[in-house]
Design goal:
heterodimer, A: FAD/NAD(P)-binding domain, 2 domains, four-stranded antiparallel sheet, 11 helices, B: mainly alpha
Chain lengths: 552, 177
Amino acid sequence: MRPIYDVAIVGSGAGGGMAAYMLTKAGANVILLEAGAPWNAIADGAMLTWPYESPRRGASTPTHHFGEFDACIGGWSLDGEPYTSAPGSQFMWWRARMLGGRTNHWGRISLRWGPDDFRRKSIDGLGDNWPITYDDVKPWYDETDRLIGLFGSNEGLPNDPDGVFLPPPKPRCFELLIKQACDKTAVRCIPARLSILTKPVNGRAACHYCGQCSRGCKTNSNFSSPGVLIEPAQRTGKLTLLTNAMVREVTAGQDGLATGVSYIDKTTGADEHVRARIVVLAASACESARLLLNSGLSNHSGLVGQYLTDTTGTDVSGYIPRMADHITHNEDGVGGMHLYMPWWVDNKTLDFPRGYHIEPSGGLHLPAYGFMSDTMRHVSHAGYGKALKADYRRLYGATVNFSGRGEMIPNADSYCEIDPNVVDRWGIPVLRFHWKWTDYEYKQVKHMQETFRSLISAMGGEPLTPMPTAAEGYGIAAGGQIIHELGTTRMGRDPSTSVLNPWCQSHEVKNLFVVDGGPFVSQADKNPTWTILALAMRTSDYIATQRKSGAL
Amino acid sequence: MSELSRREMVAWLATLPIAQAALAAERALRSTAPFTPKFFTPHEWRTVRLLVDAIIPRDDRSGSATDAGVPEFMDFIMTDRPQERLPMRGGLRWLDNHCHDQFNAAFADCTPAQQTSVLDKISSPPVEFFTMFRDLTATGFWSSKMGVADLRYIGNTVVHEWTGCPDAALSKLGVSY
């Protein structure tokens, strides 16, 4: 007789990893199914590798879209796993196929959401309010802060709440120049909030400032699910981990309750089934929606796959003459910005809703494939020879980049559905994406471009590229390019307008939960991962309580 | 993993294996046996070797692009990145066509003065082939061991305590903590 697990979790990223951690700690027998291969930063990561240790010097490969040394296996296109787009729609769908998923390569930008972010409709009439408030989530943010560890500073800001922060690292040289420009232009600039340890936490060593978080950390000093959540879960003895397991369906019984999941064992090709009393989906927002749609479950509302959103984004780089002929020093720092700019403008003065935060970067980097090509294209006139060689030395480290990450309003024209005509290599019907930016987003991104150019100007610099035109969408990144998909299984109190209840529990299938970005009712001017973690912790606690009382 | 002291962590990090395949490939690039390109024809190879050294010559701080193994790097990239092949092969042919029109000789067979005049023409303002070739030369040079040392990049290492921007840089930039 095949075993019945207490909980089957699909996906080992932020939400799935947190659920595995919490539920094994609560005594449940958990099986965690991951579509990708096992991956371990210590054995498999490229931290502290020099570019010349590889003949391609860090360039991207078909399996590593962000560079061969980057931790991520996978990308916007996967061999044998296509997706389609409706005519006129452009969406890029990222799949990280590895243990820990996107948490291996993400930016560690860990911004808890503020009170306004859960009730935007009450503020500007757009979109919908969440059925929960910041106060409901705050205790879980606090616990997540303590469990995982992040650095930052308490600033007493109304919508960028204080947290349980480790001390932030001192700004880099160029970040001090950026702060100076922000002070001149009245843009608030404060220490960043990244889940990178500046002091040891829970037996994990503090960061050694090699700046290579995205390669995976061999000392477990940043947050990725395998090192921080899955390994402790395994140490309870209550976790069964299945990798290379492509889940294709949530199975249900006559009573409408979930009975487990069917999956394809990628190593043997066999079709398998796992029995579980509770199923938790955490395969990433679109992948979990795809599972529900292919399973024919939990969609009386018709909202599975609907209200798909991504973060708005654009970048401007600038050459800063004052930064040329730099003083030699090690500018690596952590694998991310030491300072950032949370949303600072009163929307009453603007022609678009919501806001964005700014992520600065620049300065001296480890040379890699593509070295200084943008700078040289736009700044150097040296041609070739000794003068060119001298220009590389002079201009190395003399650019800055600003990236905006902002809040989209969910719209009914942006969603994913099953494409009835296409299956992937596993025989699983694929998603078809519909996508549309509106003027809300275009105007917001225009503001990003204008702000970044004024910051570069305040630094005495020149942007490398001209201001994008309206026809170019003001430089807005494509849907899916920022990799923050949210909303495809939204939560709410009313089953006719939501898929999940405020506990991320399916309205229709009481033993089915979703803990990735799907339940989100809105985006924010902040990244989603810290909220995915806090909500997954909260939902897991709810599941544990319900199990204890016999309700589940 | 239990908490390591800083010293233990540095010692432990030093024992981590580097991917054997990558190391073997890098050794192969540096081997003393004559290199046989897998992509470039013998004529293209002559042209590439001349071009890279014109772009990044030896000077008093470091060697030239050929000293740093840039042509070998480029040949590998051509085998590794199919999308780069046509711009490279077509561009080298375009260059030779241009030289034939001017001097009745391929670039590699022109005199140094002729080569200089052609380079001046295609680099200022830069034609797209020149920009691509220069960028690839630069990637190969500055990401080599010689190039990283020339730049005086001193990161990619374990830092016990992050002390931020050094005083000399603070005063040069006119900023402070």
